[in-house]
Amino acid sequence: MRPMDEEQLRECGHRMVDFIADYYKSIETYPVLSQVQPGYLKELLPDSAPNQPDTLDALFDDIREKIVPGVTHWQSPNYFAYYPSNSSTAGFLGEMLSAAFNIVGFSWITSPAATELEVIVLDWVAKMLKLPSEFLSAALGGGVIQGTASEAILVVLLSARDRTLRKHGKKSLEKIVVYASDQTHSALKKACQIAGIFPENIRIVKADCSMNYAVTPGAVSEAISIDLSAGLIPFFICATVGTTSSSAVDPLHELGQIAQAHDMWFHIDAAYAGSACICPEYRKYLNGVEEADSFNMNAHKWFLTNFDCSLLWVKDRNYLIQALSTNPEFLKNKASQENSVIDFKDWQIPLGRRFRSLKLWMVLRLYGVENLQSYIRKHIQLAQHFEQLVISDPRFEVVTPRNFSLVCFCLVPPTCEVDNGHKLNYDLMDSANSSGKIFISHTVLSGKFVLRFVVGAPLTEEQHVDAAWKLLQDEATKLLGNVVQ
Ligand code: PLP
């Protein structure tokens, strides 16, 4: 194969698209969760790269025989684990076009369309979410595409840290404190590690199980008061809309008020559930976002946009730029020097960046807001349906009320079980996943092993939810039959 040949690309490209379309057509024939053992691929591939080129045919054979068995099929309609990672025709086409241009859009000048399209589509989505006008590019704020929510959280934490250190002096690093709940994603802890926040200054406030695992403002206030009395400097609160374990929603308004009272940065992580808030009936979950300094949601989770595409908005972009900009001679150019353009290199960790706005633009244009809303609603209705199925079987229980498309449930252990049903539910998950027919995941809430069933894959229909439930019921019957009552 030549490095770049139009005719060859046309022919091979058609073959690859056919291969991918066939893959999607037959996706249900594969085990959803890959069943290979660790190290399986080393046994199948040579120790070193080929000296002479291989043929595309040989490669396709290897993909079918050696790679696909080691793939867990996130696009399968029977995928119900973690949170989803959507692919769509529009998102996929956007990825193809982005790969074709293959620009590295760190500064406006390196591809003006990439920067300007990103600004426009982030404004579009901000308006769909009814974010306050301060988050739009016409104001002091604006949106930017990060690779992941983890990067989004890291860059705002760095912005907040530097804002605080400018106010209190560099030597205050050892005194600045971060607040979050024990349900906040581990991405925050990692961000703190990278940002040099002292480990003893990370306050993990226990979420309230009676509030469905949202954190209470009182608990956060109390932690802040104790720290203030000890001479520490509270500087960052992270709230979540749609926590990873149980899709809990923290009280945004109250937490925002607390942050404001203490001149703290207030970030809202809505990586999964943010997408649902484009529907008027779910927008209430963002009430209080007016108080936030920054907000993120992953378009690559539940918004039909292929990975990676994490959307971050800030109220004041200058804090990002102050924390992250560099200006080496070799990147200087007229537009940047005149301050007439955005250079997204100054809003993120790496220098290089892909043309990711293309796929989001194509998703928004080729589906439109109404279809995206219907897509979300359908998944939430299917989750509601699953929840009803669980409720209808007295052997099971729903563990926390459902907010979006995640149902947290478990098989109720017979009274003689000493481990609160941990082994029973682990075995249920394991047997269901080992069947290859579905993939679900788990969490632990208040010491209890809980199964998570998330509807969010683009191909999932009611029949898949029903079949998954039937499988779980059958496996439960087998397991309970083995339990000595
Ligand atoms: N925040 C929340 C609430 C999440 O659920 C997740 C992942 O599921 C993340 C952050 C991390 O996302 P990413 O993989 O984009 O860093």
Automatic annotation (TrEMBL):
<dbReference type="GO" id="GO:0019752">
    <property type="term" value="P:carboxylic acid metabolic process"/>
</dbReference>
<dbReference type="Pfam" id="PF00282">
    <property type="entry name" value="Pyridoxal_deC"/>
</dbReference>
<dbReference type="InterPro" id="IPR010977">
    <property type="entry name" value="Aromatic_deC"/>
</dbReference>
<dbReference type="GO" id="GO:0006520">
    <property type="term" value="P:amino acid metabolic process"/>
</dbReference>
<keyword id="KW-0663">Pyridoxal phosphate</keyword>
<dbReference type="InterPro" id="IPR002129">
    <property type="entry name" value="PyrdxlP-dep_de-COase"/>
</dbReference>
<comment type="similarity">
    <text>Belongs to the group II decarboxylase family.</text>
</comment>
<dbReference type="GO" id="GO:0046189">
    <property type="term" value="P:phenol-containing compound biosynthetic process"/>
</dbReference>
<feature type="modified residue" description="N6-(pyridoxal phosphate)lysine">
    <location>
        <position position="301"/>
    </location>
</feature>
<keyword id="KW-0210">Decarboxylase</keyword>
<dbReference type="GO" id="GO:0030170">
    <property type="term" value="F:pyridoxal phosphate binding"/>
</dbReference>
<dbReference type="GO" id="GO:0016831">
    <property type="term" value="F:carboxy-lyase activity"/>
</dbReference>
<dbReference type="InterPro" id="IPR015422">
    <property type="entry name" value="PyrdxlP-dep_Trfase_small"/>
</dbReference>
<dbReference type="GO" id="GO:1901162">
    <property type="term" value="P:primary amino compound biosynthetic process"/>
</dbReference>
<dbReference type="InterPro" id="IPR015421">
    <property type="entry name" value="PyrdxlP-dep_Trfase_major"/>
</dbReference>
<protein>
    <recommendedName>
        <fullName>Tyrosine decarboxylase</fullName>
    </recommendedName>
</protein>
<dbReference type="InterPro" id="IPR021115">
    <property type="entry name" value="Pyridoxal-P_BS"/>
</dbReference>
<keyword id="KW-0456">Lyase</keyword>
<dbReference type="InterPro" id="IPR015424">
    <property type="entry name" value="PyrdxlP-dep_Trfase"/>
</dbReference>
